[in-house]
Every structure is written in C-alpha cells, then in structure tokens.
Amino acid sequence: MNIPTEPLLALVAGVLILLIPRFLNYFVALYLIVVGILGILHHKAII
User: What is the Cα–Cα distance from 4 to 42, expressed in whole angstroms?
Assistant: First the structure.
C-alpha cells in the first residue's frame, strides 16, 4: 500500500490546527520542514 506522504501530512496538520489553533505556527513550520526534506530526498533519488 503506497500512501502519498504530503497529502497525509497536510490532512494531519489541518486536523491538529482545528483542534489546537494556538500551535498553528509550529504545525506550519514542521509541515514545511518535512515537505522540504522529502522534496530534497526525492530529487536526489531521481538523479
């Protein structure tokens, strides 16, 4: 089973932001860091 990572992260972050809105900055920062790392690793895997 191959679940795409970015949409899953976005879904989890969205639910957490709805439940705990005061942590919005942390969720956005973590999401951007994870997506950036995944993007770099995926880009290096292709080359």
Answer: 12
DSSP 22: G
Give start and end residues of each alpha helix (H) in 1-47: 5-19, 24-46
- The DSSP output letter for 21 is G
The structure tokens listed for 6 are: 């970015």
Contact status, residue 27 vs residue 17, Cβ threshold 8 Å: yes
pLDDT digits (tens, 9 = 90+) for 30-45: 888 988 888 888 776 6
Confidence (pTM): 0.60
